[in-house]
What we know:
The protein is of the alpha+beta class.
Amino acid sequence: MNRPLRITSVFCLTLILSACSASATRENYADLAQNDLDTLSDKKASQWQELNHVAPVNLLTDLIQDPKLDVLIKQALEANPNLQKTQLTLQASLWEIKSQHEDTLPSVEAGFSADKTEGNDVSYGADLSISWELDLWRKLAQSEQSSAKTLASDEALYQASQDTLVANVIKSWLAMTANYRAIDIEKKRLALLEANEKLIVKRFKNGLGDMEELDESRTATSQSKADLVEYQEALAIEIRTLQLYLGMSDTLDIRPNTDYPNVSLSFNGLPDQTLHRRPDLKAAYLNIEAADLKTSVAYKDMLPSISLSATLRDTAEDPIKALFGSPVWSLLGQLTQPLYKGGQLKAAAEIAKLETAQAYQDYRNTLLTAVNEVENALGQEQVLSLQERHIRDALESSQKNLAQYEKKYRNGLVELNDLIDAQTTAFDLEAELDNIIYQHLSNRVDLGLALGLGVNEE
């Protein structure tokens, strides 16, 4: 008997040492991820800090100060169905973790039975059993920690969903103003085109023009009417989109601002307010930690487990005596060591290790995507700023040129077609400038989101 026992003990000890050794030599992907973030942030900080703008902001809602917009953002956060669904999922996950915590505590079960056989009196039985698995290797604790990390990752993704929703509401609000202004510009253009058309008709009747000039004027008027209808529908679509963000079923009765708001954004102290604050990066990092804990649990599944159980049991002819008599108790301690499961435990540990490596690669992809989003938005910030300045200068020159043409036309020095061309150029530049201003403001919202600006979590 001693020889088989010694062989079994040696084999168990070998498995324990093998599992501990394999677990100890795992790659620390969490440290690698933190290293990647710090290195990349330090490398990009000098580039990004070259830009300097007006006032610093900490939240997406700081970008635009507008009471009406604040009301819309609050309603979206409270009523958006996708956001509410995610919040309910988080609440369910929290209860699952609380349920999992019970695995680390003793379990208690009670039973009561009555038995009747032919020729005998009724006998009653009562039992009370307590069982508890000792968390010798902190396997249960780490499993619970892994679930907590996964929950924290989901909470970070929920924060990312909130941030994206708020950014979409702000951009939709800006788009409504852009469409409203496009409608206003097109209405002024149409009014002028219709006045020109009447003038051309009058000149044509007086024999001062030709049919081609009249047809060209009517074409321009019809095109302007078509553009006006398109802008009006674009505004209606944007209102319906905002209504969707707000989780509303009724038609949204709201009038957009006639002027663009100031959108503030500062790049001062950028290393402190960029990538580290992005919730998707936080979620990806927490996924690495959760996967690493699962890997540790998978290796510890190959180690022995110890469980204790105690039972109180009594049988009597009276229910009261069965419950409160002199019960017989028993105590059992059990040591279990997995010896052979066809390689399942080893395969599970290797799979868990590979899933941790995959989580690290997901983190790297998220980090590179974040950098790409910031740099694209920064590039657009520079380009749109230059475009806005150049188009503003061009519009100013065009308006001066138009004033000169109007003066010359009244003095009979230029043809009507030349005046109409100058008017068209001025309106086209005004519409282009307005669109660039909208794109610039919208890009600043995208940039704020890329830098990790979020919403107040209170």
